[in-house]
Design goal:
Layout lengths: L1 E5 L5 H10 L4 E16 L6 E17 L2 E7 L6 H7 L5 H10 L5 H10 L5 H19 L6 E6 L14 H21 L6 E3 L4 H5 L6 H7 L8 H7 L4 H13 L4 E3 L22 H16 L1
Antiparallel strand pairs: 1-5, 2-3, 2-5, 3-4, 6-7
Length: 296
């Protein structure tokens, strides 16, 4: 039996709860929504929403006995090498080389080869795939109007690595993240602002304790790179970069400004770490940050 609907009426969280509690097996497909220009009246006879027709598939979630076992989404590279790179188990060069040399292998074959070559462990692969799948679920929990369809008893392709994930904790954590995301979006509305160090940055950063990701972000701060660009260069989602920048702002380690350069800045991972040249103190700070990053 197929279940069809719209996330404006039946939310992702409600769908996941239904699938989990009823221990369903099958595939949930989310489609790109196209407004038809018409209105739909809901069951109360008063509320109206835009009618949205399904377009191309944008996400698929597979379930077995109510547990999530596989997830894929357009725009989120699902190649195993890319998943491992995002999880920090492979560097960029390793991931690129693996993709080129193992292009003919499916995920299961590639996983076996990587384990045998001591690139990663089985646990690395399982945890990285879990993280990838859960991040897709968290994204879907923010969607508000896309059409969906759930078909029972349809298994994922045999070439995929299936990692069972209990949905209860995912739903709880996803709800918390959505609440946090709304707060961060209110605090940092515009990601096209740049960041700069305050006066006397040497004193601010003296004995500071930051994590690896925070140091990576700090390494790109030069008054020109926007928050959005820094996030892409560090392979972070909008929420992740907002969370780090918010923490740096609250600690007084950085300030938000309009980008200093009027030129169209480079995008994505082409950004370079540029040393501020205003003062010797700022140069010393960046040097210490780079050393810290390398030693982390």
């Amino acid at each position: 039996m197929a279940l069809k609907g719209n996330l404006a009426v039946f939310t992702t969280t409600q769908l996941l709860n239904l699938i989990n509690l009823s221990k369903k097996s099958g595939v949930l497909t989310i489609y790109e929504g196209h407004k038809t220009g018409k209105k739909l009246t809901l069951g109360d006879g008063l509320t109206q929403i835009d009618e949205v027709a399904p377009g191309k598939e944008v996400a698929n979630l597979n379930f077995q006995q109510g547990m999530l076992v596989f997830a894929q989404m357009n725009g989120k590279d699902g190649h195993l090498a890319s998943i491992l790179q995002r999880a920090g188990k492979l560097n960029e060069e390793q991931a690129r080389t693996i993709r080129e040399k193992a292009a003919s292998l499916n995920d299961k074959g590639l996983a076996l080869r990587l384990i045998n070559a001591n690139y990663v462990t089985k646990n690395d692969i399982v945890r990285s795939i879990q993280k990838h799948a859960v991040s897709i679920v968290f994204d879907l929990m923010t969607w508000k109007q896309e059409p969906f369809e759930f078909k029972e008893n349809i298994a994922p392709p045999d070439s995929h690595i299936l990692v069972p994930i209990d949905l209860k904790n995912v739903i709880i954590e996803g709800t918390r993240i959505i609440t946090e995301q709304k707060h961060l979006e209110e605090e940092i509305e515009n990601l096209d602002f740049a960041l700069k160090f305050p006066e006397n940055p040497g004193e601010k950063f003296k004995n500071v304790q930051l994590g690896t990701n925070e140091w990576r972000v700090v390494g790109f701060i030069n008054g020109k790179n926007t928050i959005r660009q820094i996030g892409k260069a560090c392979n972070m989602t909008d929420t992740e970069i907002r969370r780090i920048v918010y923490g740096l702002l609250q600690a007084g380690l950085v300030q938000m400004i309009r980008p200093q350069s009027a030129e169209q800045p480079k995008r994505g991972t082409d950004l370079k770490r540029q040393q501020p040249a205003n003062t010797r103190i700022e140069r010393d700070v960046i040097q210490r940050l780079i050393v810290k990053i390398k030693n982390t």
